[in-house]
Amino acid sequence: MWRVSVRKSVCVLTIAILTFSVLPMISSGEYDWGEEFLLSFEDVKYFDLAMNDDGKGIVVWSIYDDPVSFIYSMRYNADTGWDESPTDVYANAFTVNELKVAIDDEGNAIALWREWGAINRVCASYYEYGNVWGPFESIRPDPSPPASSLGIEMDDGGNAIAVWMQSEDGYESVFANRYLDGVGWGTPTLLENQPGEASLLNMAMDADGDALVVWRQYNVTDYNVRYNTYNVTDGWGISDTFPDTLGFLTNVELAGDDDGNAMAIWRYYNTTNYDLFYRSYTAGVGWQSIGLVEDSPDSPYYPEIAMGGNGRAIAVWQQQDGSFQHVFACRFIPGSGWSAPERIESNRGDANLPQIAMDSSGNAIAVWAQYYGEQKNLWGNRYEVGTGWRTALLLEDNHLGNAMESLVEMDDDLNAIVIWRQYYEWESDIWALTPDFKPPVININSPSNGSTVETPVITVSGTTEPGASLIINGINVAVGSSGAFSFELGLSEGNNTISATATDGAGNRATVQVMVSYADPVAGLQDELLNLRNELNETMSELNSTQDQLNSAESELDKIDFWRMLSIGGMIAAIVALIAALIAMLMAFRQRRESGRLESTKGRKPPKGAAPHAMPQAPEAPA
Q1: How far are the Cα atoms of 70, 177, 479 from residue 142, in angstroms, in the given order?
Q2: End-to-end CA distance of the chain
Q3: What gap in Å lies between CA 623 and CA 618, rounded to an integer?
Q4: CA torsion 223→225→231→237, rounded to 10°?
Q5: Residue 14 vs residues 5, 60, 395, 540: alpha-carbon distances, Å
Q6: What is the pLDDT of residues 58-80, one digit of tens each?
Q7: What is the pTM of this model?
């Protein structure tokens, strides 16, 4: 999400740690916020809060012990909790009038403050995670006119931009300076040169270091919303004005996400009451059209805006509803616009100064101060994606004094920090809450979801939060000191749902389910034998059919062979007859030939010297 700088001046500090976790079928009832306890009795003047997406947070605060001002810090880590004691940031004989802090993804931080005294300085100090705060330095030339409306943000790479207002050519104007990781601070840049006072300054920065700055600009007779943009490649642009915003307006607020989308809101007077307007900024595209968040007859007061991933946002404000001021909220979804305003508490007492934080998934936390009897206490509510707003709850009931302004931050793992001030007589003390809002995690290691088993009793095993109570399919199951559990569970034939519900000491609950199928092996064998028998019968039937086909084919072949034999015999007989006829014809021809020869020799005389024709004589037989 965009890192957002807001204007706050707070006198006392109280800290609450809110840890959430999204799991299937989570239910935490009314969420036990825990008991408040006194963290410090020093009279805190100013404080600020920052948190990164990795669960690291840091709080800075200032106290004044005449004639010296002190600045302290306290780190928070979602895995280990708070530091054991505060860390010194700064001490000097100047009055600290405003204090801001920013943090990067590694947990490094920069504190920014302004001093009032012989020299009006805007100072900064760098903190390297796990180390100590470095020496402070002034980030603008000394001497300079008094500064106001500080803001600072850091990107994922440890670079930062600080903004503030100071007099230039007789008017309050907007300035900025950039901190480059490993190099240091640059030279202040004037972001606008309009002939009128600038005020209500806000800044947002995305993960890459691009930034947006918005403020209210006075133009001789009326106000409008003005802005400037910073790009890490091109630097600062030229300031410009939102169209159609000329008039009396207040409460200019800004929020953004890590991808560079942003949302600005402001109150605009319509001659009878205030309406709440907005203008969204789409990364890579620019500013969109101006529209209404709400326009009811009752004016909204002290609006705040938070932004999650994909351009989603939630706005909160206080508004008269009946006899009291109450807290309202509505959600923005790109492409759908704003939802209808929804009242998120139902107390009988005025609510004041709501604050809102949102994660990249769209979950959110809202806190505010509200009269509860004779004094103001801190109240809170949370928005869960898919569920909506829960029931507003009293976060503290310290009857020694009023709870007042608050701040809230949260990361993408639903860890959160809430800080607020609480008065005791004429001073303000530091109080803390450490509620547990994180439902226990349940891991069912065996059986695996969707598996099939052949035994009627199985072992269900896994882990959950140590000390949590566990119920599996209505039966209490013991959880070991390490969080491990093992349980024998009987199954019914067919599909079975195994449902495990764990409840921790704070009353947070989580439920997970796995499906397992039990197949009885005896019934399975009987079914298998029946299937084999049916298959065998089908095979025999197919074999009989095949045999019939073979028999039919054989009969056809026999017929074909008979006629074939008949045909061959006929051919042979014909050939024999033909040959016999040919022989007979040849014999007849020879006989005719011999007869003709004899006829031709009758009556002819033999030639001279030739012996008379006589029949040949047979040779004599030997003696």
Answers
A1: 21, 15, 64
A2: 153
A3: 15
A4: -40
A5: 20, 12, 11, 87
A6: 999 999 888 899 999 999 988 88
A7: 0.76
